[in-house]
Amino acid sequence: MLIRPIEEADWPRFLPVFREVVAAGETYAYPEALTSDEARHLWLESAPGVTVVAVGDSGTLLGSAKAGPNRPSRGSHVATASFMVAPEARGQGVGRALGEWVLDWAREQGYVAMQFNAVVETNISAVALWRDLGFAVIGTVPEAFDSATHGRVGLHVMHRYL
Amino acid sequence: MLIRPIEEADWPRFLPVFREVVAAGETYAYPEALTSDEARHLWLESAPGVTVVAVGDSGTLLGSAKAGPNRPSRGSHVATASFMVAPEARGQGVGRALGEWVLDWAREQGYVAMQFNAVVETNISAVALWRDLGFAVIGTVPEAFDSATHGRVGLHVMHRYL
Q1: What is the pLDDT of residue A41?
Q2: Would you call A141 and B155 a contact, using CB atoms and an 8 Å cutoff?
Q3: Which residues in chain A come in under a pLDDT of 50?
Q4: Given A15, A104, A153, B124, which residue has the most CB atoms within 10 angstroms?
């Protein structure tokens, strides 16, 4: 598996993953009816942020991550990141590989911590992965996410120093 | 004191307040070098959000608040809001009046809760006011705000049902 910056040719391959993840309604509070350009604007970070893809040995697009400052200016020493793994590539360690890549990147960029603002509490595998990678739940906003299958569930704020 | 939707003529009167609050470096992680248009884009909410001003009896602009959904789509049942009070109008209950107005507005709009994502923990008067208006601290992201006088301090996530 190779993790590298996203390229122009990756976008049409990633867009269906983005749409499928959002439409599933379990992990992201993004609008479902986004155009390609709107989705691209949301997912492709400009400097000082970064967007990468994970690509399999045969060139398959396995997933993507984006990272950058969680807030500008007086909050810009804390990074944030988002992740999507293609449904057919789950359970192969893609999320973990992307998570580790992003943590290394943030450390190299000089961030002092990383914060996730909205980890859906019923997204058990993500919560477990982030805990395993050193994140702790700072707090949980109750009923803040309308999950397609679970109804209103909490959103964890998760954090770790780098 | 009158609280009403912001109008075109209010912006040049509010902009110096916005700049002064941001430049003080104690409460907002906004860039300090924003143009008028950039600041306006940040502060003026479009539907379904709202931006209001508090105006004194003599027509003086005392402060402003903005509110709207904290997240789109599956998170849009939770509101968020931001507040700025003119330095010369502090201690007169302007923040409380704006807070109460925004809570009423959010209730009328059908939001089920309100969440503040980043209340600087050393902003004692704001934290006390929000507690008094029924908000609780859900969690505190450590050292996430670089305060001009206190250095790195925590950012509270605060929440209340409506």
Answers
A1: 96
A2: no
A3: none
A4: A153
Nearest to A141 among B29, B74, B115 (CB): B115
**Domain encompassing residue A106:** 2-161
Do A104 and A52 meet the contact criterion of CB atoms below 8 Å apart?
no
- Point out the residue among A73, A141, A152 whose CB comes nearest to the CB of B29: A73
Do A103 and A95 form a contact (C-beta atoms < 8 A)?
no
Question: HSE-up of A162 (CA within 13 Å, CB side)?
Answer: 22
Number of structural domains found in chain A: 1
Structure tokens at B151: 């250095």
Phi then psi for residue B121, to 5 deg, are -65, -25
pTM: 0.96
Q: How many helices (H) and strands (E) does chain A have?
A: 4, 7
What DSSP assignment string belongs to A13-56?
Answer: HHHHHHHHHHHHTSS----TT--HHHHHHHH-PPTT-EEEEEE-
A144: domain CATH number is 3.40.630.30
Chain B: closest CA distance from residue A57 (Å): 35
Q: What angle do CA B131, B134, B140 make, to 5 degrees?
A: 50
What pLDDT does B139 receive? Answer: 98
Q: Percentage of chain B surpassing pLDDT 90?
A: 99
